[in-house]
């Protein structure tokens, strides 16, 4: 799909305006905790926005690009749910006050969006010139799927700092305590950063590690950089509200890792089959996007229903609900 430059500018500009409006509405006045009602409104708003974008894409570009967008969006959104528990661990590790958590998530997600944009551009260029990378992506997704199944049920309550975060903590002079929601402060004439910046770096860079499997997954559904970027952007935009909306529900999605493993495995096989098909292997089929969209949607519905049903049975039996879903390895 050929996308003119003005369309890129319009979409990116529109997303930034919406995010700025979101931040202004939420942060005006005194800092306060994100209410369940507020979170539900914004989650619904961003999901509706994604649906409208997909419908517009259908009307202007046809059903195939629109189907690729919806399949990519559902996949990225589903993978993002598995990331939320890790975000919770980071918030706890850095003792972020609840009234400031929404701001930390927003800035961290904006950082992740910029870095993912760079990653997507590099990935699209590489795939366009090196077709054999599809085999690498496919094999990596299959490996990740196996790891998700093997790690199911193992709590990962320890957050391991990545290299960028360790550098930031060493190189940036910072205060020991939070200073409201400020990122920078001046004490005795010396400019310091607060833990707010450090935790934002933690959120943003950790999300980039998660992109190591989510980006190859969506490239398995479409190689169109515009669709890959917009699907990622819409999935990330509503992520912070979803963090507050789900709350304890995350504890009940006990089969989430199985569902995500199946989706990643399916996309991995799809990538390899289509790479073989492109190489002239007669028996290797092309997997239509309609089938991909159906498999992804049905898998997430079945996973969610089965998880909630099991949690309900555990509660009736008096069993303890797992304290966390499996946190995905980057």
From TrEMBL:
GO cellular component, one term: membrane
Keywords noted in UniProt: Membrane, Transmembrane, Transmembrane helix
InterPro entries linked to this entry: Integral_membrane_TerC, Integral_membrane_TerC_rswitch
Membrane-spanning ranges: 6-27, 39-58, 70-92, 104-126, 132-149, 192-212, 218-237, 249-269, 289-309
Subcellular location: Membrane
Membrane topology type: Multi-pass membrane protein
Family from the record: Belongs to the TerC family.
Protein name per UniProt: Tellurium resistance protein TerC
Record organism: Planobispora siamensis
